[in-house]
Design brief:
The protein is built from 4 helices and 5 strands. It is an alpha+beta fold.
């Protein structure tokens, strides 16, 4: 009979971390250059003055990407000996626009643990400086136990 080793996730429900950043003009243009998304919503001030927003807005994915930093910080905070990777995001929502000069704070909170499959589920919420939610998502983090060392692989 083989005995399966039991692993424990390095989190408790409610564990949380935050990350804050002010969105600068250069962030928006660098993101546009990196992704090729030069939509006039992000890069054309004259056009945006004709809209209800009256100014350019940051890419939703830029704001989301800043929030992803909190998912890295929770992994660092856990100090786990098991490596972990992002297993994906569900229900990503861009709720309010973010404008150049806005300061966003990402709050990441562990909301569910799946010990059997070594997955944790986190709530990612990103707020602007007025404490209004601008982006929300559910994140899945997958842990992988370090493999036990044995005979070196002889295959070439």
């Amino acid at each position: 009979m083989s005995q399966e080793k039991k692993y424990k996730l390095p989190f408790a429900i409610g564990d949380s971390t935050t990350f804050t950043k002010t969105i600068a003009e250069c962030d928006i243009y660098q993101f546009a250059g990196t992704t090729g998304d030069f939509s006039q919503m992000h890069t054309n001030e004259a056009f945006m003055k004709t809209t209800k927003y009256k100014t350019r807005m940051a890419h939703g994915m830029l704001t989301f990407s800043i929030g992803v930093t909190a998912t890295t910080l929770i992994q660092i905070q856990a100090k786990s000996s098991m490596p972990s990777v992002s297993y994906g995001f569900d229900k990503v929502r861009f709720i309010r626009p973010v404008f150049p000069g806005d300061t966003v704070t990402a709050v990441y909170t562990i909301v569910e643990l799946d010990e059997e499959n070594l997955k944790s589920f986190g709530k990612l919420e990103i707020f602007n400086q007025n404490q209004e939610i601008v982006v929300a998502a559910t994140h899945i983090l997958k842990f992988f136990p370090l493999e036990e060392t044995g005979e070196p692989d002889q295959a070439c």
